[in-house]
Every structure is written in C-alpha cells, then in structure tokens.
User: Fold this.
Amino acid sequence: MVESQALKALAALSDATRLRVLRYLVSVGKDGAAAGVIGAEVGAQPSRLSFHLAGLAQAGLITSERVSRQVIYRVDFDALGGLMGYLIEDCCGGHPSVRACCVPSDAEGA
Assistant:
C-alpha cells in the first residue's frame, strides 16, 4: 500500500458510522450484507448510509456486488490487511510494541 491509499482509508475510518459499518462487515465475513441490513445493525439512517458506503468503497475498503435486486457489500480483506501492514511495517517501522498487538496472546492460543 502506498501513502495516498493509506490516507484515504484512514480518512474514511475517521467517521464513527463508517467504522461501525466496517466492523459489522468484518463480522459477517465473505457473505457480506445488503445496505438495509447494514443500516439496521449499525443504527445508520438510510438517507446517510449510501454516503458512508460510498466513502468506504472510494477508500478501497469495501466492495459491492449486485445480486438480483440487492447490492451486497463486503470488506476487501486484502485492502484492510494492506492498511494494517502499512501501519505496522512502513509507518511504525515494525516496532515490537506495535507488532505485539498482532500476535495472539497465550490465553487466546490455549
């Protein structure tokens, strides 16, 4: 990931609604969800949800696919991973304290 892409993604995530949308889409995984379901889950008004979805899509963090009469939104896990990798390696120089957040603790591995 390059700096300009990282900045777009971080800017998109600086909004509480967009962050909730991304977190919800991560939780539903590859199946994704329709806009109405997303809005209900994150408490977003339908009139504003399309704006937030467009912002996440423009930042490259989500994708959309028309399935019959619905549009299904999904997290682009490769892009999200690229952003995390950029932050950890490029931005933070692989600092051990920062990298520690990505290593499962002993309690999680048990």
Observations:
- The first strand starts at residue 33 and ends at 34.
- The radius of gyration is 15 Å.
- The mean pLDDT is 88.
- The chain is about 60% helix and 15% strand.
